[in-house]
Amino acid sequence: MVGFGDVGKSAARILLAKKIEVVAVDVEEKGVEGIYFVRGDARSEEFWQNFNLDEFNSAILALPSDTDAILVTMILKKLKPDLIIVARCNNPEYVEKLYRAGADYVFDLPSVTSEVVVSTVLREFAAKRLFYEGYLISKYRVLENAKIVGRKPEEFKDVVILGIEKDGKVLDKVDKILPGMCVIAAGKKEKILEFEKLFIPSKQ
To answer: What SS3 string covers 130-188?
Structure first.
């Protein structure tokens, strides 16, 4: 896992749940139980030359900068051409550039989490889902009187909350979930469907 911010940590937790060993690389040390951490600048070719890439068959790039992701992709492919690279992309304009740099899979984050309005008798509460190997990534708008209002993000153990937005901005810290926020969560299909019920407004 190259880059260990919110996206990297969330992806790592899902991999750990599937019994997949994870090694994280970041410029800042961020300890997470079950993950071996290596502190270093992934943009440095010298760093990777001293890193035993032969022990790995794939890398997930969860870097906040698309230009950094392109650079790291090029370095990794140069040093280990058969390494499978999955890259996060923040700006759709860089998707093709990442593929040209050598990425095998590119996930355009804004498109994955972009909201799709669903109108039902329960009002607008659900959003686009991505189904991947039994997991769903869903984004929900929190309405007035939704059952989740007032709950703390850390309360939920069966799903991973990837991020919480308000007014188009990802919030660094959320003490409790409030109306107007958007919650992005990932987990097993049955757990996400159960979690989704919390976004249904309570009856008056």
So the answer is: EEECCEEEEEEECCCCECCCCCCHHHCCCCEEEEEEECCEECCCCCCCCCCCEEEEEEE
Provide the pairing of β-strand 23-26 with 36-39: parallel
Helices (H), the chain: 6-17, 45-49, 66-79, 95-101, 109-112, 189-196
Whether 110 shows a pLDDT value over 90: the answer reads: no
Sign of CA dihedral 23, 24, 30, 33: negative
Return the minimum-mean-pLDDT range out of 64-68, 150-154, 158-162. Answer: 158-162
What is this structure's pTM?
A: 0.55
Q: Based on the number of CB atoms within 10 Å of its own CB, is 95 exposed (0-12), middle (13-18) or buried (19 or more)?
A: middle
